Amino acid sequence: MSLNAERSYKMKLRDVENAFKYRRIPYPKRSVELIALLAISCTFFLFMHTNKLNSRLKEMEVKLQPSEFSALGLTGNHISGHDAGKHDDINTLHGTYQYLKSTGQVGYNVHDRRSSEDEQRGPTGHGHHHDHHSHHHHMHHQGNIDGHNHKATHDKQLAVPDNKPKEDEVHYEDDENEVEEDDDDLANEVGTSDDEGFNFKADLLNNTKYAEVDFVFFNRVPKVGSQSLMELMARLGKINGFTHARNKGSAHETIVMNRQRQNDLIAELLTRPKPHIYSQHIAYINFTRFHLPKPIYINLIRDPIDRIISWHYYIRAPWYYRDMKAKLGDKAIDTPSDEFMNLDLDTCVRNQDPHCTFTQMQVKNPVGDHRRQTLFFCGMNQKLCMPFNSEAAMQKAKRTVETEYAVVGTWEDTNITLSVLEAYIPRFFRNAKVAYYLGKDRLSRVNRNNVTRIVSDETRLILRKNLTNEIEFYEFCKQRLYLQYAALSHGKRFGEDDYLLVPEQQNEYNEDY
Fold first, then answer.
1. How far is the C-alpha of 68 from the C-alpha of 440, rounded, in Å?
2. Does the domain spanning 81-498 belong to CATH 3.40.50.300?
3. Which segments does the entry list as coiled coil (predicted)?
4. Residue 302 CB-density burial (10 A; 0-12 exposed, 13-18 middle, 19+ buried)
5. Residue 281 known to be catalytic
6. What are the C-alpha distances in Å from 220 to residues 64, 262, 275, 396, 411?
7. DSSP 446
8. 421 to each of 97, 160, 242, how far by Cα in Å?
C-alpha cells in the first residue's frame, strides 16, 4: 500500500472513531423527566432528614449541656453569697445538674412513690416544746432512748451560756412508752441507698394529686421565713377563696407529740371548713396512720448555717422580748442578762460556749434551739428523729419529702419557689407571684431581725463540719425544687415565668396578720 493510501486509510479510521465517540444517543422524553424528578426527590429527602436531625441535636444539647440551664431561665435567686463563687455549688441549678449527672440520676425514671407509702409511720409519744415565736424547745422525753447505733460521733463540737433563761432549757418527762417498730427498722437501713432517680415529667414530681382532702398542712420550720409565707397565704385566701389559720400563741409550742395528741389535733383540723390552710411549728404528722384523709403537705427550708446564725441573733434582739411580753403578758419569759444578749456568734463558737456547741447524735440539748431542720420532716419518732445530725433521721426526712410533700421551697430562690407553688398547687397558690410582688415591701420584711453581725469564715467552716447531714438534707430539698421547676417547662424556656415585672402602684394590703 502506498504512503498516500495508508494515510487516507488512517484518516478514515479516525473519522469513524470520532463519529462513534461523540455520537448522540437519543433518549425518550419521558425518561428524562423521570430522572429529573428522581433527582429532585432525593435532594428534598436529604434536606428534610438533615433538618430533622439538626433539630434533634439541638434538643439534646438543651437537655444535656449544663451551660444551657442558664439559657432556659432556670437560674435561682441565690441570696446567701458566702458560697456563691463555687463552680460546683450544688445549691445552684448548674451544680444540681452536675451532681445528678455524675451519680447517674438524670436518665432514670421516677420510682413509684406510692410503693413506700406503707413504710411511712407516725410518731412516738413524747412532747418536744419550745417557746412561742422564739421557739425554745421543751421536750417530753420517753424513758429509754439509748441503745440505738448510728454513725461515729464527730470530734468537732460547737456550742452555748449558763445564763440561758430556764425557759430555754430542755425538759424531759416520761410520757407514753410508744415506739414505732418500722421507724426503728429504718434506722438500721442507713447503709441502704435511698436516692431515687428523676426525669423531667412534672406529674411524677407532684404529690398534690395524692391528697384526699382540700386542706394544706404547713408544718413550718422555724427561722426559714415562714411568717412571710403565712401572710402571703392570707392574702391569697382572699383571691382564691380559702381560709388560713395558725395555731394559737403560747409560751411553749409542742414540736413532737404523743399519738393521742396527734390524733386530737388532726381530727379537729379536718372538721374546719374547706378549702383551708393550717400553719404550726410541728414535726411531720402522718394523717393516714390514723385512717384520716391525707392533706397537701408544704414547707420551707433554709441553709442550716444561716438558720443557726439567724436564731443566735434573733433571741438576742431586745424587740423580741418586748413583743413576747405584749402578746403573752406574765407568761412571757424575762429578758436574759446583758452577757447573754451581747454574746456574738464568733466569740460563742471560739470559746465553745454551751449555746454554740453541737454534740453529734445528742438528744438532750444543753439549751433549747432549732439546730434540727430534719426533725420537721423526719416525724414524731423521737428515738429516730431527735439525735442531732443523725444520718438515719436525714434519710427518713428525705423519704418523707419525696413521697409526701407537694412542695418544699425556700426564699433563697423566691421566684422558683413561687412558680412551683403556683403550678403544683394551683387551687391555693394561683397568682402567688403577683400577690407577692404587689406586697413585697412588707412580705420580704416580716419578722426580720436587724440585730445581726458579720460572721467569720472560720465560724462558718466549724458550723459546716458539725451540720453535715443537715446540710445534705437541705441540698436534697433544693435539688428536688429545681427539678420540679425544670419539669414545668419540659426543658424549654419559661419566658417571663422566671421573673415578674409588676407596675409600681399603691399597696392595698395594710392588714395585720
1. 30
2. yes
3. none
4. buried
5. yes
6. 36, 16, 19, 18, 13
7. T
8. 22, 38, 15
Beta-carbon contacts of residue 462 (< 8 Å; ≥ 6 apart): 156, 158, 349
Q: Answer for the pair 355, 164: CB distance below 8 angstroms, yes or no.
A: yes
Are the C-beta atoms of 281 and 324 separated by less than 8 Å? Answer: no
- For the record, the C-alpha cell of 79 comes out as 441570696
- Please tell me the pTM assigned to this model: 0.63
Domain map of the chain by residue range? 3-64, 81-498
Query: Grid cell 467552716 — which residue?
Result: 461
Name the amino acid, one letter, at 150.
H
Tell me the mean pLDDT per 10 residues along the chain, length 513: 71 70 59 80 77 67 44 40 43 54 46 44 44 41 39 34 37 39 48 40 89 98 94 96 89 85 96 97 96 98 95 86 83 88 93 89 74 95 95 98 98 95 97 93 71 88 96 98 88 48 37 30
Catalytic pick among 128, 133, 281, 312: 281
Separation CA 501–CA 498 (nearest Å): 10
CB 307 within 8 A of CB 370: yes
**460: which strand partners?**
none
- Cα torsion angle, 218, 210, 391, 378, sign: positive
